[in-house]
Write a structure and sequence with these properties.
2 copies of one chain form a homodimer.
Chain A: H1 7-10, H2 16-30, E1 37-38, H3 50-63, H4 79-90, E2 102-105, H5 108-114, E3 125-129, H6 133-137, E4 146-147, E5 152-153, E6 157-160, E7 178-182, H7 194-207, E8 210-214, E9 240-245, H8 247-250, E10 258-261, E11 267-268, E12 271-272, H9 273-284, H10 290-298, H11 302-328, E13 333-335, E14 341-345, H12 352-363, E15 365-366, E16 368-369, E17 380-384, H13 389-402
Parallel strand pairs in A: 1-15, 3-6, 3-7, 7-8, 8-9
Antiparallel strand pairs in A: 2-10, 4-5, 9-10, 11-12, 13-14, 14-17, 16-17
Chain lengths: 403, 403
């Protein structure tokens, strides 16, 4: 008889954002006149850039004619897109990554979870705490058991990130086999300097660990000496896989496009991970839509880059408004300079969820309780810069009044 | 130190269609003037229907304006699409499937492989032989070892399909925990009658097995008493998951859209599989693009259905031309009536690959060697009806001359 994968039973009941949605729905039902402002989920609000729309229209037109119709895409993605990525995201920043080391996909969420399939089931995994829940929830048989008191799985190696270490974890004493790092960080908005990241690369190479580097927010980096890619570090080609997304870069959350870089020099036990990921990608995935790949290509044109820069500028201005707003209101807050997330300390020893309820009730503002990202997130709260300008300003006014 | 997932090493070196592509490339280099006709891969050639293009254009327009822009899609897909599917694909055929049992995705290939994640790693799996390679290649730890002499994995339960049983397998003596069935079948083009399928449903319910039913080609069914969905059978709601695709139905191979049905009555050990798949889908997948879901919705409009019917008619006319053509040329052939695939016996005791080389050389026609789908496919060869009409006719002329 068929049986279920018992690992699902180890997962905490509900996905963080589903719980939030439920609470907000209940509040709305009880308070039908409340005008709720949502600064919780990391979804964008600006429409697609004109260059992207133009590329979509033109690609849709191609799909309407027999001569230019496109069926199945090449396994790893169209060359026109991979070459632009290799040039603008890597070569231009001094990174030695070739187009055929880039795997186009429908987003970083799928890739950063599915990547675990190419590794041994007994590999240990290190994650920052707090952390984007997907890394942990997709670990299947590798987590060990969940302890609901500590809110931790017993086989996962948690690397605490807090104000004391500037939200950049220490190198663990015993090296995890796989190490998830995400910078600029979701949820804390922290970044890592190039020197610090180099230490992680050296550590991974010394210990034969693989770094799974989530660089989904690199476009929000505004300061110097903050690496946009792990391949800016020496030796990363032998120890790191990098994930990128068009979601936050160009507002593709509803269009779906991302990519993963697996350098050909990354070899375990004589086997190149590039070949394994190519096999996994080719066997269980059928490529991102042609029209979406054309849309992705458009952000690398001169006009496209200008438009994207403007869009990012808009969100980062929101980030500034939030960071200054909550500081003015007397909060201690982090992030928001190189990332679209502001990570603030809850006041008066409130727990994350108490503060969530407080803000929902008093200010009708919705953010994300820090504890939802891991136990070290307790006492923190995340606000995102992806909202509309007027509502973001209004939210700050309300938060100040509620305080 | 990190290690690889050793199960990858058990897979035969190359994906079938990559080997074919390589052989064709080499032939082309040696014979630069040959005009090769490809009736091998199951990719469509007709452009998207006018209704689909119209829906795409309108959805792209929505994405260009702040008021109508769409970010992340709902986890399970937009209600506008799921409700159309529930109505036209299920209710209209007397199947009791509700919209919230339908999970929209980017295609059946991903779903029919990823579905294995919700089952125990020790579950045995039965597959038809010959079979669509993806089911087997994605089994990860469940296959046992590969024997290159028998071309079989030792833990997979193979269910032979050949001319003797009309390409419909017998019920195995010992029931597999999971059973992949695909009707209309890829690669043989065979169908199963409703009475026969009912036997499988009863068998699965008696043995607590789960049927993974791939109905990607249901739209090609032209005869009566051939089930379009497994849910036409009594009791399927407690034992079957069904996969569908817009790829072959509406030419979406390059647009990517499909869906999976997990009835809420399908329960193992007290756990509803619906909840497990929802958790898997929500954790590791981020939804099909809004514009593509709108495109999918368009095929259910009155005009859309008319256009799709015409497109399918075109391909099925090709199928008829091929079936009659190869029979005229003296071949024994199957399929092609309720499926876009024609499955023919190789002549003169040629192996599948010998016949592949023979046709490539003498007729410059490319099909797929039957043995590529499994050992029972040896001595067979697959032709597809997705080509252009003129080329399909020309291919038949050449095959007759080569014979």
């Amino acid at each position: 008889m068929a049986t279920i994968n018992k690992n699902f039973e180890k997962l905490p009941g509900s996905y963080l954002f589903s719980t939030i949605a439920k609470k907000v729905r209940e509040f709305e039902e009880a308070n039908p006149n409340a005008e709720i402002i949502r600064l919780g989920i990391g979804d964008v609000t600006k429409p697609l850039a004109p260059s992207v729309i133009k590329a979509l229209n033109s690609a849709v037109d191609e799909m309407s004619k027999e001569e230019t119709f496109k069926g199945y895409a090449p396994d790893l993605g169209y060359a026109f897109l991979r070459e632009k990525i290799a040039m603008y995201d890597y070569k231009d920043r001094g990174c030695n990554i070739s187009a055929d080391e880039i795997f186009v996909s429908d987003g970083a969420k799928c890739d950063c979870s599915n990547i675990q399939e190419i590794f041994g089931i007994d590999n240990t995994i290190g994650v920052c705490d707090p952390v984007y829940p997907v890394y942990v929830d997709s670990m299947a048989g590798r987590t060990g058991l969940y302890n609901s008191d500590t809110m931790r799985f017993d086989k996962v190696i948690y690397m605490p990130c807090n104000a004391e270490n500037n939200f950049v974890p220490e190198l663990p004493g015993k090296a995890p086999d796989l190490i998830y790092l995400c910078f600029p960080n979701n949820p804390t908005g922290a970044v890592i300097s190039k020197d610090e990241l180099q230490k992680w690369v050296d550590y991974a190479n010394e210990n034969n660990s693989v770094i799974l580097y989530d660089a989904a927010y690199e476009v929000y980096i505004s300061e110097e000496n903050v690496p946009h890619s792990i391949y800016e570090c020496d030796g990363a080609r032998t120890c790191a896989i990098e994930f990128r997304s068009f979601s936050k870069t160009a507002g593709f959350t509803g269009l779906r496009l991302g990519f993963t870089v697996v350098p050909k020099d990354l070899v375990l036990d004589g086997v190149a991970l590039h070949g394994l990921w190519a096999r996994r990608h080719g066997t269980k995935y059928n490529g991102a839509p042609y029209i979406v790949q054309r849309a992705g290509e458009a952000i690398y044109s001169e006009q496209g880059r200008r438009e994207i820069k403007e869009q990012i500028g808009y969100y980062m201005n929101n980030a500034k408004i939030i960071l200054e707003g909550v500081k003015d209101a007397g909060f201690t807050a982090y992030g928001g300079v190189n990332a679209p997330y502001i990570w603030l300390r809850t006041p008066d020893n409130m727990t994350s969820w108490e503060f969530f309820d407080f803000l929902l009730d008093k200010a009708n503002v919705v953010g994300t309780p820090g504890v939802g990202f891991g136990p070290e997130g307790e006492g923190y709260y995340r606000l995102t810069a992806f909202g509309n300008r007027e509502k973001t300003i209004e939210a700050m006014t309300r938060i100040k009044e509620a305080r």
